[in-house]
Amino acid sequence: MSHVKAGGTAKNTRDSPGQRLGVKLFGGQKVKTGQVIVRQVGMSKRGGVGTKVSANYTIHADRDGIVNFSSRKVRLFSGKSVRRTEVTVVDAV
Fold first, then answer.
1. Cβ-count burial of 85 within 10 angstroms (0-12 exposed, 13-18 middle, 19+ buried)?
2. Which residue from 46, 75, 72 is spatially nearest to 58, judged by alpha carbons?
3. Global confidence as pTM
4. Res 79: pLDDT
5. Cross-strand pairs, 40
6. Torsions phi, psi of 22, nearest 5?
7. What is the architecture, at CATH level 2, of domain 22-90?
8. Are 50 and 65 in contact (CB under 8 A)?
9. Three-state secondary-structure class, residue 71
10. pLDDT (tens digit, 9 = 90+) per residue, 41-63?
11. d(C-alpha 10, C-alpha 76), whole Å
12. What are phi and psi of 64, to 5 degrees?
């Protein structure tokens, strides 16, 4: 017969790795076509000229150039205007 009490089962031992979200290339940096500029959940940053937004809201460069971040007003469905960051790629001079 065992002289050790039964150990309980651990329930909170699982953990998932981070999703590596965030800004990958900052303003003023050079970018090539197809490179990821921002990985995000939802549309916290908007894609502008020279960018493509994929199905999971990742913003990619549509052409070679320089990354630029700016602020612009966006109208929500309710009619309210809010400021959002817009990501664009301008041609390198």
1. middle
2. 46
3. 0.80
4. 96
5. none
6. 125, -175
7. Beta Barrel (2.40)
8. yes
9. strand
10. 999 999 999 999 999 999 999 99
11. 45
12. -70, 145
